[in-house]
Amino acid sequence: MRKSAADRFRHLFNRSLILLRHRHHHHPFPSSSSLSPFSRSRFFSSTPFSMASDSPFPVTAQNINPKVLKCEYAVRGEVVTLAQNLQKDLQANPGSHPFDEILYCNIGNPQSLGQQPITFFREVLALCDHPAILDKSETQGLFSTDAIQRAWQIVDQIPGRATGAYSHSQGVKGLRDTIAAGIEERDGFPANPDDIFMTDGASPAVHNMMQLLIRSENDGILCPIPQYPLYSASIDLHGGFLVPYYLDEATGWGLEIPELKKQLEAAKSKGINVRALVVINPGNPTGQVLGEENQRDIVEFCKQEGLVLLADEVYQENVYVPEKKFHSFKKVSRSMGYGENDITLVSFQSVSKGYHGECGKRGGYMEVTGFSAEVREQIYKVASVNLCSNISGQILASLVMSPPKVGDESYESFNAEKENILESLARRAKTLEDAFNKLEGVTCNKAEGAMYLFPQIRLSQKAIKAAGDANTAPDNFYCKRLLNATGVVVVPGSGFGQVPGTWHFRCTILPPEEKIPAIVTRLTEFHEKFMDEFRD
Amino acid sequence: MRKYAADRFRHLFNRSLLLLRHRHHHNHHPFPYSSSVSSLSPFSRSRFLSSTPFSMASDSPFPVTAQNINPKVLKCEYAVRGEVVTLAQNLQKDLQANPGSHPFDEILYCNIGNPQSLGQQPITFFREVLALCDHPAILDKSETQGLFSTDAIQRAWQIVDQIPGRATGAYSHSQGVKGLRDTIAAGIEERDGFPANPDDIFMTDGASPAVHNMMQLLIRSENDGILCPIPQYPLYSASIALHGGCLVPYYLDEATGWGLEIPELKKQLEAAKSKGINVRALVVINPGNPTGQVLGEANQRDIVEFCKQEGLVLLADEVYQENVYVPEKKFHSFKKVSRSMGYGENDITLVSFQSVSKGYHGECGKRGGYMEVTGFSAEVREQIYKVASVNLCSNISGQILASLVMSPPKVGDESYDSFMAEKENILASLARRAKTLEDAFNKLEGVTCNKAEGAMYLFPQIRLSEKAIKAAEAANATPDNFYCKRLLNATGVVVVPGSGFGQVPGTWHFRCTILPPEEKIPAIVTRLTEFHEKFMDEFRD
After folding, report:
1. Taking CA atoms, what residue in B is nearest to A159?
2. For residues A78 and A251, which has the higher predicted lDDT (pLDDT)?
3. What's residue B327's pLDDT?
């Protein structure tokens, strides 16, 4: 009986998995017409009692939150799982594959690929972790003078001088003061420390805003396509509706206002109440940097339509072309004369990107402006439920927004480390971009910023059919083949969204510079064989 | 026009705020019941709360208002940092700006389990290892030997070697660094005497995200219920509210030292079922917050059996596992209890939450912790992993610290003696503070206080006169909130009203931590005693 019940359960799950895959394959984004709320509810809901006869577990795929099932996150999806399994295989059986290592180009994780941390930042973090050594003479021999000084300053700002204590739920006031000063210096407009909510990276900040704005699946959020899957995942988890707007590949992934208007009207006509616009600048996965005039148009659009502008600006330090500069949306809106009462704007920042790439420290903040005091209280209340973000991440975020200055002992080494990293990133971006553009049937826009290239690959009908036979999206098929042949991990464009009928993949520019030539060679050889194998 | 619109908005908001306050004040059931849900149908609630930016534009300058945000956010409450705390923070600013303006010279925060903010020193070994992992470049320098202990250096080397790329600034596996999970699994095995699988461990930024993840997994609608103890830690009521579920309360028995009685569980479960609630899980907090009790092993076995029979997930909040102050009680994890009863992976679904915030270490700001998930199918486990992967990973320092907590220095290590001295000093001091405060509360007129067997809190009951209750109503506050605000204004001592944690209707409590520095405890006792006598005299019937 137990075996039979387990078998039945497995069958039920496999069937629902096939249904989910099928739906995902053709419509990667939610459409209210494809499955009515009522029938979806019928499909997913069940009681533990009735399920008890079918499964030994009280919790099954049939009775968990359907929003969790709906959520997807490709950056760590199927291809990555395959890569991790291959890595284990390589360790257990060296020489069993035509490559000797996995090269992770799937995720913006610089230090996992050998990028060194910024010395000054790490010195300050270590001293704040163990302030007992601050006044010992041996410390002078291991740490720079200005790192010691900054650590003293930070520890003094923390109530109780305790880096192990919960802070204010928005973050340590003194650290928020430092960040606000950094924002003012960056933008040239005032910043209020009370507008800053420090977070464990940008993800919790995005989740908090989705939780605030989304009431039901009739609430929509305008998101760029291609887009970073955190947004689609968070919208799904909060039961909202993703309203896609396409970036224009032909114009270097430009954001066009007519496209925004078209998609907004289309959503409204379906009864969707669009609440916010997500803009990622510099772009992920597309690597573009918006022009200032374009930003002004976007601000004006949000103002006119009464939308919250959710500005993902975590790549603000990653700009590789001289003709573009990062301008925060807050700076742009203030320079247009729009103040606190004119536009509602949230800016997300993170210590994970930039030249610092401190992903594992989980530091960041959101700067929230243009909300009433009452709504701000609600944002604070939800932040307080989780008490506070991690103090090391808070300290690091304050360092990122206020790094060593001219005259500080660490300034020269800091600046050298920073410039070396950014220049190397620019070179890697250019080398990979050129390599992709040389491949048959592949075009790749320039990486003006961020950490990614998002080339389009034109696949033959034969390849598309082979992918169909393998029950997978064509770009997923290509990426898995690439991985199995070369050990290079990239993410299929279907994980980020793309114009239907086009295929892409996202490749980071982060592998160590000395490995880039090998990646180019392997990828080129693979691509030629793939194109030959599936020539129509 | 702008001014007029703003005024109208303020009026609308104030009115809705009064409605919310009124409902909270008069309803003696601070937790959601389906009966209160039925008092406002989804349709009419939607009508009240939903609006389009266009129509709201004429009433407010903001596209986002209290009327059009997610109603689950409005419903959520979190008293530990609520009204009394806000008042305290304002008083603190006032004291800094105008010294001598109040009858006390400092605010004494007894509202939150935050030991290091009140002077508790961190464990040296843990901090040494964290500092070295933050700046591994100094690991092989000779000067490092003069600042750090040998075994801290050795452990830091070991940890850095376990991290892919040896990079503490990199994202880890979404469940946490495998080597650190191995260390934690070994620590769990040593604690419990039963195997632990590193793949069952999801490392988190403290316990809160773990709890949220489980609520997100289990709650589909307001018809899904979660059994929670009353009094309870507001993270649970807040998380259930934020995920749109129904809190099914079960009362701990104050008369028997906050015991958890199975008949009460059964009664509340049946009551919920009769209202169409599908109860999915049971939350147990052991040692208890805010109540400080430690469950007996026989009681734990009854609870495991109850969950098994009813097909409930057992959500075991075990973050105070290192905080037990009485010799007749010991911490036993629910996993250990269930395994010792013969229940294995396929017999019961159990999630254990642990955190670096509590214990003798009290590293709240490091945001470290994990949940150990057992008894889920592979398919559901994949979903748990997927949601964890959306947020990429928890912070590496917190992960490292969680592994240190579960595998501290051992006999023979250079740091062992100093580590044990630090640990025992902290725990012994906590026990003394608990006893002193408990005795002080029990001496107060009309106050009874159960023993703090564990955790970091005392939860005394205070019997208030009708006159005091009436004065509270006149001040538009619950009686215990009224008492707590009066206490704060008179003494600077911050405690949390019991209504924030739930209590049997008609009873009043407050939660006081045992964490103020030991040398300040006598002053707290004196101030509180004097205040209490005056309060009781002022409001004598």
Report:
1. B117
2. A251
3. 92
